[in-house]
Specification:
The complex is a heterodimer of chains A (about 70) and B (about 375). Chain A has helices spanning about 10-20, 25-35, 50-65. With about 70 residues, chain A is an all-alpha fold. Chain B has 9 helices and 26 strands. The chains are: A mainly alpha (about 70), B alpha+beta (about 375).
Chain lengths: ~70, ~375
């Protein structure tokens, strides 16, 4: 399945929350994403939010963990 | 009238400083007692015959998952030292069931981890991804001379992103030549030992480090992650930028700056520390963790190692309702060196208070990823 278009990191975080059955899991996954990409999904830096390269990098990291957004 | 049955959930921990490994393991066995075990861990100085210790503990606790590794120092709730062995029995009343596996990385980290994870899933009869993170926890011990820590943690996270694997990287008393990890009586100097426990009591995984942001951020603009080298901060030579920030000449930052001023990736106010190791070619800085181009890190400054550790452990106990049945802890070698330099080894042990604990001083700490200059651990409570 092709990945749907997600424009920014805020949307990535929202989609991830939707996929996680346990809301507490967002914290663990956020740390894993931070250590792999440098992006804090809870509070991305303003210049990162719409960076398409970073959005793709974060989505790749999440896909490796089984979260295809 | 109902009668309350007290379940034995308290960890039994042991330490031996005897230089002869046959005598050391005999002393460990005597201290560990004969209660039914759910899992066993040991942490042995490279001066010890770790193969023999693994084999003899395996004979003493047959059919019980056992993992261990070599160290850069070992500790319990009673002492910290080098040259000896620490160990713990997690009683059957605490660990309902457990699985263990050795990942052999000689054909690649991916292949070795995949086989080990499949082995864990076979033993447990379930996919790790389905393991309830409130009931299951993983332990991971990684060899310390192949720089596979990041990849191992990533692969564990890919297999089970919500499951905590907590642990550390094996050491060899700062020789940096050969470290070993064990599962049962099998060992390797290129791999990882894994265990997954189903825990019958509440537990909490924790980490603590003694740093706070120093008010300066760097963006990595050039790096070689495979060598863990950062070449540029903010478009300039990393060593030069770092030296300006800490206030020492480049020639002095390694000796005067690195220990007290690592950098951190910060989330929710919590730093995930990356520790500088050495200046490379007068301009780059190698780290004990990978840092990728584009990442923004904060310069940190050291705080109160003893006070912060005590507070973190007290917080963990409070999370468990005020009672702990034991803990396993993984403490960075750089923290141990600070304890050594400041004469704080006993103070460190005292922070653990009377919580039965076994641990070791590591070449890296694991939880959700690979970190430096940190204490990671798992603390177990009691079922009510």
């Amino acid at each position: 399945l092709a990945l749907t278009k997600i424009a920014n990191l805020t949307s990535v975080a929202d989609r991830l929350r939707e996929q996680l059955a346990n809301p507490a899991g967002f914290g663990a996954v956020s740390v894993r994403v931070l250590l792999r990409t440098g992006v804090n999904l809870r509070s991305p830096r303003p210049e990162q939010i719409n960076d398409s390269v970073l959005v793709a990098r974060v989505r790749d990291a999440l896909a490796e963990m089984g979260y295809r957004l | 009238m109902s009668k309350r049955v007290l379940v034995d959930q308290q960890l039994r921990t042991a330490y031996s400083a005897l230089p002869d490994s046959a005598a050391a393991v005999a002393e460990l066995v005597a201290q560990l007692g004969d209660r039914p075990a759910g899992a066993v861990v040991f942490f042995a100085s490279p001066a010890q015959d770790a193969e023999r210790i693994a084999a003899e503990l395996g004979q003493r606790f047959p059919a019980v998952p056992l993992i261990g590794c070599t160290t850069a120092g070992e500790f319990t709730d009673r002492r910290t030292a080098t040259g000896g062995v620490s160990a713990a029995v997690l009683p059957a009343g605490l660990v309902r069931r457990a699985a263990s596996a050795l990942a052999d990385h000689s054909a690649g980290v991916e292949q070795g981890l995949a086989a080990a994870l499949a082995g864990l899933e076979d033993q447990l009869g379930m996919a790790l991804r389905q393991a309830d993170p409130q009931r299951y926890v993983g332990l991971v011990l990684i060899d310390g001379t192949h720089a596979a820590d990041e990849r191992v943690n990533e692969l564990l996270g890919n297999a089970a992103p919500l499951l905590s694997f907590v642990g550390g990287t094996a050491g060899d008393d700062l020789a940096f030549t050969s470290t070993r990890v064990f599962c049962g009586s099998s060992g390797t100097d290129n791999g990882a030992a894994l265990a997954v426990l189903e825990v019958a009591a509440p537990f909490t995984v924790f980490k603590t480090c003694s740093f706070e942001p120093a008010g300066r951020r760097f963006t990595i603009t050039a790096a070689d992650p495979s060598r863990r080298v950062v070449w540029e901060f903010d478009g300039r030579p990393a060593a030069e930028v770092y030296a300006e920030a800490v206030g020492y000449p480049v020639e002095q930052i390694q000796d005067r700056g690195f220990m007290a001023h690592p950098v951190g990736l910060v989330i929710d106010g919590q730093p995930w520390i990356r520790s500088p190791q050495q200046v490379i070619d007068g301009r780059g800085i190698s780290f004990y963790c990978q840092i990728l181009p584009g990442m923004e890190v904060e310069l940190m400054r050291s705080t109160d190692l003893i006070g912060d550790t005590r507070a973190a452990l007290q917080e963990a106990v409070a999370e468990l309702g005020g009672t702990a049945s034991g803990a396993l802890m993984f403490n960075c070698i750089l923290r141990r060196l600070e304890l050594d330099a400041r004469g704080l080894n006993q103070a460190f042990v005292d922070t653990i208070a009377d919580i039965p604990t076994a641990g070791f001083h590591t070449y890296g700490e694991s939880w959700l990823g690979h970190v430096n200059q940190t204490l990671t651990g798992i603390m177990f409570g009691r079922s009510t």
